[in-house]
UniProtKB/TrEMBL annotation:
It comes from Mesorhabditis spiculigera. This is 2-amino-3-carboxymuconate-6-semialdehyde decarboxylase. GO terms for biological process: negative regulation of quinolinate biosynthetic process; secondary metabolic process. Belongs to the metallo-dependent hydrolases superfamily. ACMSD family. One of its GO terms (cellular component) is cytosol. One of its GO terms (molecular function) is aminocarboxymuconate-semialdehyde decarboxylase activity. Residues 2-196 form the Amidohydrolase-related domain. The keyword Ion transport does not apply. Pathway: Secondary metabolite metabolism; quinolate metabolism. It is an enzyme of class 4 (lyase). Monomer.
Amino acid sequence: MGISGFEIGSHIGEKSLSDKDFDPLYKVCEDLNVALFIHPWDMHMWDGRLQKYWMPWLVGMPSETAQAIVSVLMGGVLERFPKLRLCFAHGGGSYPQIRARCGHGYRVRPDLCAMDSTLAPDHQDKLIWADSLVHDPNALQLLLSFLPKDQVCLGTDYPFPLGELEVGKVIEDSPFLSDTDRDTLLWGSAVKLFNLDENKLSNKPF
């Protein structure tokens, strides 16, 4: 059908994305060379303590995205499917902040963490993708400290209110980025993620 990618949630029922029941999906995505965009949903309510102040969306969503990433990395998904392109919403959620903690945990408690992957998460996370929707240049810089720029795509969260009010402003306002870097983040990386023909993206009259 010419579709370049699909969106799925951060888990399906009680199953995390590392569950081998999803291996057939990952295999098809590899074979068809399509990307999967992963957005958090159905966040745990922490026994009601997240009910106030919109915290399921402000706190729960970043945690849910981090859980999905760690599940993929420690679950060996990218070892089984090295060509799979998984892009995680909201700059990977809280994963960039806890990245070193997860890698340390893998190394000091292999009995609990190293059951399904031969590589620590911080030794394979350069294979994932993320969008740029982090709301802060410092957070974007942290994300880019381990992810290649051409694996971070412009994120909008459209049409929801937690998206940037001015799409791309964080990228434009990040002083550590060159003009080439900005072009990569604003459009170049998405061309790569979705395996698009750049020459067909120009405006055409209707």
